[in-house]
């Protein structure tokens, strides 16, 4: 279920992106590039427990390598993408040599020193950065097709993103990812099961370098004008914030964090310095309060939903089909569901229209209007529809639970006892996105709260 | 020739001699117990054998080969598996993920295969999942495979670690305090599993506080106190050994 939903969402977003106009497409590309770069730091920080403050250099130096190569060797930046990866890997290995000798805070210092060294040594040499105005690269071409606009380049970049996602998922969902996470949480145990700890710690820097190099090369491909100003030292901190916000787990968290931070900046929804101010706050918040980031949040929500669905499933199995609303069709299509589905569809249409319009105008104020009316409005419709759907599912499930339980629970008074003294009183339940305290009767609620409490005490 | 031969191993931390010329033999296919009071050096000896610590002096031989200078992951590759006193597990991951991680060496694909031949990874991980299920079955953990270790009781987490060690089917298993935190029923389950492992030909060296458990399950017992080997022999002999009684109970007070 979840993979299907995720694939559908990704495909939908991809289709939307292809609809976007030139200006929007360009900004989307910037977000995608940040996402690619953040994957590297995600593996490094969240999966391996290492730290790198040199990520700006990790991205910038390969970018210059690719730019210089495509300028002097007249190589299409598209074909130079693998070279960016190679440059990143080499850089990662150099840093690994230094970082392997250190632990914890020292690693931060070592990588910070590398970052400073790159920006102070390489980013001032004219043989690296070219003329003061920066390097200009001719628009890339593929199979004789000149890709001059961002819209025409977008499919290429999307292919790169897909490749990066597939590669990183392969790494993380294999013995490599498992080994990295054991090295992170318990190096001794890792060594005892036969994982060469030092090798993996070094390799992860190379991996981070590979994704950073890919991001750098994609940047050259995308922006076609490159100067050291694009890779200031604090860019590394922005990436770190993205990685920490994402938290350990899948790439979904990275994508969300990248969209929030970089998307917030390029679409000017967030103030320009948002990352600078919110970054430390988010870090502190994360470290002290909630260490699992977006991924942890998603996992938690999913577990909660799954538990709920499991409870519902168990109960509907015992209940007879009579309790279902009789509507159209054999399984009983309910009117609220239809309305909710229509709302969601309308929301997507609104977003798509706004997107298309905003993309095809140069006027910022029109773009903003479209963003507000179509974008936020559409998103609102989608959220409303989803909430209705969820509410309906929960209500329906709960009604069945309640009716099937009253006989048993009422007989021995079990449910009331559990409801009254369960470890998690209903009043304290966090108001999540799913309507916990939806308008159900008081008597019905005890059963649901009781079974929830029972689940938690285990 | 014994499977594991530890000869005159010494190891100091600062001025403290945690191990002082300790020797120990583990015969192939036997279950050997190592007991001793707190701070006797049992875990240090385990670390020296599994490679997490290097001995200052002495030799460690495994299946006839000197392994005293090898890094821990090479020793694991030779077939030495171990558990940890304070759980060598990732608490925030699921039981199945932990066991799969412990099967690192058994994965039938290499690192580059992950990117270059992903189908090998898919097939290989499916095979690992089967082994993982088999190991969990043994400890009655199949129903808990998707639960996080943190959410399990300590005893179940302990079993999860043992499942992870046994899944790899090492030649020599080092179990550090496997009985800690287990109740009687769980200890007897552990007893049964160890018996099964021994029938499969696994050699086991274990440390335990639970003297009765050690005496029941082991063929041979070593007693370590203050870094020295105090006594050794079959359980019944060791139990009656005056030095052991003294180390555990203290000297009888003299009248007068």
Largest interface: A-B, 26 and 35 residues
The assembly state of the depicted protein chains is heterodimer
CA radius of gyration of chain B: 19 Å
> Uncertain spans of chain A, ≥5 residues at pLDDT below 50?
318-330, 405-458
Strand content of chain B: 15-25%
Short descriptors:
heterodimer; A: 458 residues; mainly alpha; 2 domains; two-stranded antiparallel ribbon; 75% helix; disordered C terminus; B: alpha/beta; Rossmann fold; 6-stranded mixed beta sheet; 10 strands; globular
Describe it:
- Chain A is an all-alpha fold.
- Helix content of chain A is 75%, strand content 2%.
- Chain A has two domains: 19-291, no CATH class; 327-453.
- Chain A starts with a helix and ends with a helix.
- Mean pLDDT of chain A is 76; it is low at 318-330 and 405-458.
- Chain B has a six-stranded mixed sheet with strand order 6-7-8-3-9-10, sandwiched between helices. A four-stranded antiparallel sheet of chain B has the order 2-1-4-5, with helices on one face.
- Chain B has helices spanning 42-50, 72-78, 95-102, 111-116, 118-138, 154-167, 184-199, 211-217, 235-240, 242-249, and strands at 4-13, 16-26, 31-35, 57-62, 65-66, 80-82, 172-176, 203-207, 220-225, 228-233.
- In chain B, helix 3 packs parallel to helix 6 and helix 5 crosses helix 6 (154-167).
- Chain B has two domains: 1-78 and 206-256, Rossmann fold (3-Layer(aba) Sandwich); 80-169, P-loop containing nucleotide triphosphate hydrolases (Rossmann fold, 3-Layer(aba) Sandwich).
- At the A-B interface, helix 7, helix 8 and helix 9 of A face helix 2, helix 3, helix 4 and helix 5 of B.
């Amino acid at each position: 279920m979840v993979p299907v939903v995720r694939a559908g969402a990704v495909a939908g977003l991809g289709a939307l992106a292809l609809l976007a106009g030139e200006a929007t497409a360009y900004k989307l590309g910037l977000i995608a590039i940040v996402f690619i770069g953040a994957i590297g730091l995600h593996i490094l920080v969240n999966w391996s427990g290492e730290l790198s403050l040199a990520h700006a250099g990790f991205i910038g130096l390969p970018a210059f390598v690719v730019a210089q190569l495509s300028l002097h060797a007249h190589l299409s930046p598209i074909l130079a993408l693998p070279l960016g990866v190679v440059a990143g890997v080499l850089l990662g290995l150099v840093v690994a040599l230094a970082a392997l000798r250190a632990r914890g805070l020292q690693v931060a210092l070592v990588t910070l020193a590398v970052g400073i060294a790159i920006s102070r040594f390489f980013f001032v040499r004219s043989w690296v950065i070219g003329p003061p105005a920066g390097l200009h690269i001719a628009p890339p071409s593929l199979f004789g097709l000149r890709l001059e606009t961002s819209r025409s380049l977008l499919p290429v970049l999307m292919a790169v993103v897909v490749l990066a996602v597939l590669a990183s998922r392969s790494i993380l969902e294999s013995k490599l990812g498992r080994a990295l996470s054991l090295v992170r949480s318990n190096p001794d145990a890792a060594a005892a099961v036969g994982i060469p700890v030092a090798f993996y710690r070094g390799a992860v820097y190379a991996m981070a370098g590979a994704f950073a190099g890919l991001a750098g090369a994609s940047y050259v491909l995308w922006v076609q004008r490159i100067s050291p100003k694009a890779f200031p030292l604090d860019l590394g901190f922005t990436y770190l914030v993205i990685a920490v916000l994402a938290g350990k787990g899948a790439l979904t968290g990275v994508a969300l964090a990248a969209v929030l931070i970089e998307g917030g900046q390029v679409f000017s929804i967030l103030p320009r310095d948002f990352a600078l101010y919110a970054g430390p706050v988010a870090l502190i918040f994360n470290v002290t309060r909630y260490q699992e980031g977006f991924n942890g949040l998603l996992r938690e929500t999913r577990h909660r939903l799954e538990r709920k669905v499991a409870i519902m499933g168990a109960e509907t199995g015992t209940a007879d089909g009579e309790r279902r609303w009789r509507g159209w069709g054999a399984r009983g299509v309910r009117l609220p569901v239809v309305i909710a589905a229509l709302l969601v569809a309308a929301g997507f249409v609104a977003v798509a229209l706004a997107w298309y319009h905003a993309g095809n105008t140069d006027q910022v104020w029109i773009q903003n209007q479209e963003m507000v009316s179509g974008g936020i409005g559409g998103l609102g419709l989608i959220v409303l529809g989803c909430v209705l759907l969820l509410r309906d599912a929960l209500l329906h499930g709960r009604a069945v639970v309640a009716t099937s339980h009253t006989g048993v629970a009422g007989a021995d008074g079990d449910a009331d006892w559990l409801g009254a003294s369960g470890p998690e009183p209903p009043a304290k339940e966090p108001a999540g996105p799913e309507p916990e305290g939806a308008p159900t009767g008081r008597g019905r609620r005890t059963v649901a709260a009781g079974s929830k409490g029972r689940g938690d005490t285990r | 020739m014994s499977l594991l031969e530890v000869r005159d191993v010494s190891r100091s931390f600062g001025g403290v001699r945690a191990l002082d010329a300790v020797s120990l033999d583990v015969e192939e296919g036997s279950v050997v117990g190592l007991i001793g009071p707190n701070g006797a050096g049992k875990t240090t000896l385990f670390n020296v054998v599994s490679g997490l610590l290097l001995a200052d002096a002495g030799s460690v031989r495994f299946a006839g080969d000197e392994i005293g200078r090898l890094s821990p992951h090479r020793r694991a590759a030779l077939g030495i598996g171990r558990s940890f006193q304070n759980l060598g597990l990732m608490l925030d991951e699921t039981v199945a993920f932990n066991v799969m991680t412990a099967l690192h060496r058994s994965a039938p694909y290499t690192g580059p295969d992950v990117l270059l031949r992903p189908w090998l990874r898919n097939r290989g991980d499916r095979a690992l999942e089967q082994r993982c299920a088999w190991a969990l079955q043994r400890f009655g953990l199949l129903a808990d495979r998707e639960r996080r270790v943190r959410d399990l009781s300590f005893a179940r987490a302990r079993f999860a670690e043992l499942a992870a060690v046994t899944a790899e089917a090492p030649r020599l298993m080092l179990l550090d305090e496997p009985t800690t935190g287990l109740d009687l029923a769980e200890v007897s389950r552990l007893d049964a599993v160890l018996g099964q492992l021994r029938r499969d030909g696994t050699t086991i060296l274990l440390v335990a506080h639970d003297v009765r458990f050690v005496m029941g399950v082991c063929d041979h017992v070593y007693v370590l106190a203050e870094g020295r080997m105090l006594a050794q022999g079959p359980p019944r002999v060791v139990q009656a050994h005056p030095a052991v009684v003294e180390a555990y109970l203290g000297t009888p007070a003299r009248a007068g």
